[in-house]
Amino acid sequence: MGIKTAVSLYSLQYQFLQGKMTLDDIFKFVKDINADGIEILPDQMLRGTPTPTEATYAEWDALTSKYNLDLVCDDIFLNTNLYKSRELTRRECIELIKQEIIMAHRLGFKIIRLVSMTPAWILEPCLETAEKYGVALCIEVHGGLGFGVDKTDEFLNEMLRLDSPYIGIVPDTSLFCRKVPRIVGNYCNKLFGTNPDLIKYAEEVFENGTDFFALEKKHGKMDPKLASLIKDPAKDMFYAANLSGYENCALSCMDPFVKYIKHVHFKLYEMTDEGIEYSIDFKEVLDYLHKHGYNGHVATEYEGNRWILPDEEIPDKEQVASHQKLIQKLIKEIEG
Fold first, then answer.
1. I need a labelling partner for 202 at 20 to 30 A (CA). Which of 29, 59, 64, 285 fits?
2. CA 262 to CA 107: how far, in whole Å?
């Protein structure tokens, strides 16, 4: 079967939000760049979730039939704050996840991505429904919310205890940044006047093989040198606070959980003119997945869109197309 590619439609959210592309346009774009499948956030692009009308389902069915793309992953959120006066009860949360499972099945997805920090206690009560509808519940393991974070570890421990083919993980390659994303520093420097010495220090930390998430755990607080370079909080704090979301982990951190990897987010911050992603070595990641027999999809998830200056166009389509070209080429090379 081999590794296949997908595009998270989150990558094109601004095209959809601003009315520049319909869902049909987006499906066509993904097909035209030769990606195998799609990942969707129904909350963004489908009305009435998690209980869409039959009319919405009919429109979806027409699109999936027309473009014949793999339906890879359904990204959901456990919206515990639906009411002003209280959080949802555990029973309400469980029922909400069950509704999401039924919707994912009806849409044609076999994997649900649970957003990072989803509580582990939803798993066992929802497992029977997941089995019935053939939908796997998978936590996103994301930079800054990854291995070693209490909530993530609670989920992983419950996953290991239940040991079901319907529970797994979706690693996000923000865990494997070999450089701090350049686009973030450029944005903060130009928009806020962020201290260049702060940005330079962040780059040096990654060059030395570590990251600020690890340093924060080591010190029990913000890295002292990083804190000392925050000269003006209004200019510097936004950049400094974002740094812990990019980790520089060894790929071996996934070793104990390889059999539970159901899907992978290939984070995209910035494709360069040379056709590589500035921060992440995707050949390294694909080599690892291939070596461990992974046969699922890897999905472009473009997040450079949030680091484009207000007066500039978001190059989302160009960035996604360039990233797909890169990973499709790498897969061919690696798999022969």
1. 285
2. 18
Cβ(248)–Cβ(210) below 8 Å: yes
Taking the model in full, what pTM does it have? 0.95
Tokens of 318: 């160009």
Closest CA to 114 of 156, 166, 77, 155: 77
- Give SS3 for 158: helix
Beta strand 37-40 pairing with 136-141: unpaired
Q: How confident is the model at residue 84 (pLDDT cuts 50, 70, 90)?
A: confident
- Give the model confidence (pLDDT) of 194-221 as tens digits: 999 999 999 999 999 999 999 999 999 9
Q: How far apart are CA 178 and CA 210, in angstroms?
A: 9
Peptide bond into 233 cis (omega under 30): no
Question: Which of 135, 133, 166, 172 has the alpha carbon at shortest distance from 152?
Answer: 172
The residues that bridge with 138 in the sheet, in sequence order, are 113, 168
Rg (CA), the chain: 20
Domains of the chain: 4-176+249-335 (3.20.20.150), 182-243 (no CATH)
Query: How many angstroms from the chain centroid is the CA of residue 33?
Result: 20
- pLDDT at res. 150: 94
pLDDT-derived band at 81, boundaries 50, 70, 90: confident
d(CA 185, CA 182): 5
3-state secondary structure of 177: strand
